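Q: Entry one of two.
A:
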Amino acid sequence: MKRYFIAGNWKMYKTIPEAVELASELKKELADCKEKLMIAPPFTALHSVAQVIKGSNILLGAQNMGPEESGAHTGEISVLMLKDIGVRVIILGHSERRHTYGESDALINTKVRLALKHDLEVILCVGETLEEREQGVLENVIRRQLAEGLIGVDASMLPNVTIAYEPVWAIGTGKTATPEDADSVHAFCRRVIAELYGSDIAKNLVIQYGGSVKPENVVALMTKKNVDGALVGGASLKAESFVPIAKFR
């Protein structure tokens, strides 16, 4: 039976006590969940949350990382620091990093290769703006983000890569791509990966949908053929909304 990957991105929310409280609740409520689970607290709460979920079925994720192992990079967090506190998964290329902070495909690719070098899993985010969708260049954008984001990534590393399709216009807006729209873009992502790595790898690639996923729409999204999970933003900040998403079936 297909196992879905449900990940929570807490973004710039939660003090340490708040993060610990939520992680504790999720650990309890999701103990019997059969899906693959991850939560990504803010950097300040990672160590405390790591202690809470240690030994549970919830993986610890980070929302970003620096492009170097160490050095004079004021304000950055290195892959070694993240591994040191138990992080297992890194979210890279999120639209907020691309569009708010100007991260390029080349920079994101550097981070992807570094995370994989250190045996961490990567969630590589791709997605188009509303303007790009309306201009009819959605596929060009997605193809570029995938191809350039995976430069130098060997096929043997793909089992540690998850793709998250997140239409930028649907993040934090309450708008959601229709299940049919999401499935169509996920299928396109799979075709691009097939061109790059072959059909077998593409078939087994996990592709999440991100963009205002909530309990009310999760079933319709997850039952689509090419949708393998969810990268959840706002709805991951409360147990009463994240738990039903994770336990959608």
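Q: Entry two of two.
A:
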Amino acid sequence: MAIAIRQVGPCFAGEVDGVDMRQPLTPQEAAAIHAGMDRYAVLVFRDQRIDDAQQLAFTQSLGEIEHAIGTSLRAASDYRLPTTFADVSNLDGDNAPFARDDRRRLFAIGNRLWHSDSSFKPTPAKYSLLRAVSIPSKGGDTQFADMRAAYDALDEETKAQIEGLVCEHSQMFSRQLIGFFEFTDEECERFKPVRQRLVRTHPVTGRKSLYLSSHAGGILGWPIPEARGFLRDLVEHATQREFVYTHKWRVGDLVMWDNRQTMHRARPFPAHEPRDMRRTTLAGDGPTIAQAA
């Protein structure tokens, strides 16, 4: 069966038919998926009854894996999954939901802010692939914003103003927005800010997009209050209804998105209910700029 994609979002996001992730991808199928990502930026694969090994094999058919090391507050002894997966669940090492005041849970609430995966790393992520293993009785949707359409909708003066700007990104910035300030010395060192361009150009399509995230806490050369106010205005612009697709999860869904062209956020759900989501991530091609000291 040939791969077919139909648009499900307002200006982006496509649902894919004709892919069975239990079977190896052919080179032609992989090329069709990459082309679909270039066009739609978010692809939804329904009813994929696969296990972790099959998700990993599908991901590796599309590129090089980014390992999930040091990006959360989980200790290595508490890992439920190998580092080829980012554990985007609310479950501890015994598969029990975190207590409401658990430090690991409070840190993860930052995922409810608009962000781009791994923008806090010198080389940010390319694709993220998130699979629903179990979902809560309500809530827990994921929303995506098309940063290409948001860029296109800016006036020419603003486009000129932001063209050369460079931001500093850190998970400490995003967590401080929700009132999480208690970082250890080791965590402060691990989450030191990195620099990313505010405007990115897609290497295949040549289309420009905003590169925003709650991790962005400053603009080089700007006073902090002015920079944060400006970035907040851009995020409000980029997440207007006409740019947003909301995915309502079903068990067996796998959603893949391009972090170079989108932002996303998780929505709240009952704290005592398990939400088991497992993410594989494709590594980016390199830094958006040379990382200066």
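A: Comment on entry two: The chain has a mean pLDDT of 96. Residues 80 and 94 are 8 Å apart (CA to CA).
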